[in-house]
Hints:
The structure holds two protein chains of two kinds. Chain A has seven helices and ten strands. Mean pLDDT of chain A is 86; it is low at 1-6 and 249-266. In chain A, α6 packs across α7 (228-243). By secondary structure, chain A is α/β, with parallel strands linked by helices. Chain A is globular. Chain A has a domain at 94-149. Chain B is mostly helical. A two-stranded antiparallel ribbon of chain B has the order 1-2. Classes of the chains: A alpha/beta, B mainly alpha.
Amino acid sequence: MTHTSSSSGVRLEIRGLSKRYGTREVLHNTELTIEPGQFVAIVGRSGCGKSTLLRLVAGLEPVSGGTITVDARALDGLSEDTRIMFQDSRLLPWKRVIDNVALGLPPQRRSAAADVLARVGLGDRRNDWPAKLSGGQRQRVSLARALVHNPRLLLLDEPLGALDALTRIEMHRLIEGLWKTSGFTALLVTHDVQEAVALADRVILIEDGRIALDQAISLARPRSQGDAAFAAIEKRILDRVLQKPEPELADPGWPGQPAYGLRWAI
Amino acid sequence: MSQPTPREIQTGAAATVQPDQPWVLLHEGVPLHWAAVGRALARTLRRLIPWIVPLTLVVGWQLASTFGWLSTRVLPAPLDVVTAAWTLTVSGELWTHVKVSAGRALAGLAIGGGLGLLLGLLTGSVRLFETLLDSTIQMVRNIPALALIPLVILWFGIDETAKLFLISVSVFFPIYLNTYHGIRNVDPGLVEMGRTYGLSRWGVYREIILPGALSSILVGLRFSLGLMWVILIVAETISAQAGIGYLTMNAREFLQTDIVLVGILLYALLGKLADLFAKGLEGYWLRWHPGYQGTNR
């Protein structure tokens, strides 16, 4: 085992966090505490800073001010306990499905890859090339690749944004089920309020780099999207998101990042 | 089987099928589907059509030589070429020359291509080497290798080193350029993913950057193989004591046009073999690639 227990999520503390690209401040003085095992969704418009927050927590970029503390230890770059699931699955096209899942695993733990692949329902596709999978299947492989490391913090960067409605509902159930059994802390960035309400214990709205709303969702799981209470919460958050008029210019992605970074701003 | 397309009906015997009675009983109840026979015939015909022109040309050429309309000083008869090839093969002479020529070509490819790959990997991966070397290489690249011939003869004389040098110089650039661009075009998202999944620097290089650049490197290899034979032919024609070029130039002195033609065909054959080899590599290494699904499993 690489960790003391795979069933414990991390406690995440963000204090006075800010991030600047050049002169533009993307996150201002953000405060956020996430309890171990909590599922938190971050919603917001394009370019509001939600993806930046995720990248900072992942250790992919340095902070400009403030601190991120993971289990009472200050975050310092990439962490063994953190895994990200990207919007585009980022599978390696030249590796078969099973080898993609086993990426970065020590040789003695390779058998775990097959187990996790079976848990996401793709045990029979293990020897296929990623090019032969559908978009939903690729994201399931990508989820398996993240979970095989027994992460204590799973970061999901709009992982379902490119999928069709039916596949999304399936993926919601799958992610919720795996989160319940594994107990990791989950941070989901999404622009879909319904998805946030379906999955999260807490929905946080970021507006202009500030936390504008922190809404606990106490609905019983599994949640049904047709439910009246579900619809009421969804409407409340959506109204709050739409309250502010959309900025006039579409955000052209983060400066200082290559062109592919545009994806992060969706 | 699918239905015959309108095109097939036009070209083949399928047009004779009577739609109301497609099955005909041949001797003792063996059913035969006329449409199927028609389609098979049409398919065979279509496969033969591309061969009509070359076969006619060769037969016409042979007849022209036999009847003396075509001087053997201009072109030998095809049968004479075959006979010459056979005689050379039996005497072992052909094999000796092919070995020498192929040896030169491959040695040049190994030196020039190896250097190109190495430098391409360096400049593609390390910023310092890119700034240091890339613009120089891009400038030198514009000099055609064949323009160096007078200098090369002055430096190395006309022996083996000169030929190796010319081949190495010309195969260097396609491999260098494609390696460099292949590495530069690897999706940075995949590299970032590799880092977050705990791969070491070398791990990222081995699992992501090299395989990502491979299709581009193989394109470079195919360009280089093409150039390799062209430069070899020129180098061997200038002067050689052995090799296919020596064989043909020697035969020219004695007006043995049949042997000259054997040499030309040998070059063509070797070029084709090299291309097939490169295609084979692509089929195997890029079998994951949707563009190469033809060879996939």
